[in-house]
Amino acid sequence: MSTVLDEIISGVREDLATRRAAVPLAQVEELAAAAPAALDPVPGFRAAPGVAVIAEVKRRSPSKGALAPIAEPGRLAAAYAAGGASAVSVLTEQRRFGGSLADLDAVRAAVTIPVLRKDFIVDPYQVLEARAHGADLILLMASALADDDLRELHDLATGLGMTPLVEVHDAAEVERALAVTPAVVGVNARNLKTLDVDRQVVADLLPLLPPDVVAVAESGVTGPADVAEYVRAGAGAVLVGEALVTGGAPSDAVAAFIAAARDVRPHPAGAAPGVTQDKE
Ligand SMILES: O=P(O)(O)OC[C@@H](O)[C@@H](O)c1c[nH]c2ccccc12
């Protein structure tokens, strides 16, 4: 049975073929080599008070459709940075998320904090493209990649000075992700095969990550209480999209997330209590 994820990836591959025909690989390699050096996001993630917020520029989602018009992605990103975000995530997938490399360019030009290219990255071309457009981090999803591809793309990105955020959604993916010794691992509360959000997945999987890995809780944050819950479960960073683009005051919202995390004591690994669950 083909899943939402399979359908998204087949669209991504078609769009990739179009871009590759317009800009050959050798040219993207040159642009990547000429781009200003990538920033290392890890020190900033570790130094963040309470929690590092990775704030996302997200126009649409497959589950909800249009979220927000976002006329100026650069302005939104600057607001995130002003609120204390540690990085900005930019969805560049076009068909389901309404993003583009132009959004990445606009954000890159607007902020000095690290920028994540969030896309369904399945080909080395996309990694080079991310660097050519100034990305410091790229998303690599364990659910979308075979072991060899995950390693190849991870090593290509780190060789270019970028930091992969390796995304997982179950214990088997955690094991596969850790095999490439990533610096940053994200547990996605959303199952991309069904689009269901289950924050308990984050609480269950975070204790499986070694302490030297930056642990990111992704998806399902509706407000400060959810951020506190993720931090209590052991998250060092949270990745938030929808709540920030639909809330109206992005700078204040980021600041409120950070404030909510400040006084939370993470539970010792394995002792995290149950967290709430909902369906999108
Ligand atoms: O809008 P939310 O629920 O705050 O989620 C943000 C982010 O985690 C989500 O956009 C995401 C996480 N992993 C992904 C992979 C592909 C596309 C999107 C995503």
TrEMBL record:
The gene is trpC. It catalyses: 1-(2-carboxyphenylamino)-1-deoxy-D-ribulose 5-phosphate + H(+) = (1S,2R)-1-C-(indol-3-yl)glycerol 3-phosphate + CO2 + H2O. Residues 5-247 form the Indole-3-glycerol phosphate synthase domain. Pathway: Amino-acid biosynthesis; L-tryptophan biosynthesis; L-tryptophan from chorismate: step 4/5. This is Indole-3-glycerol phosphate synthase. Belongs to the TrpC family. One of its GO terms (molecular function) is indole-3-glycerol-phosphate synthase activity. It is an enzyme of class 4 (lyase). CDD domains: IGPS. Keywords: Amino-acid biosynthesis, Aromatic amino acid biosynthesis, Decarboxylase, Lyase, Tryptophan biosynthesis. Its EC number is 4.1.1.48. It comes from Intrasporangium calvum. Signal peptide: none annotated.
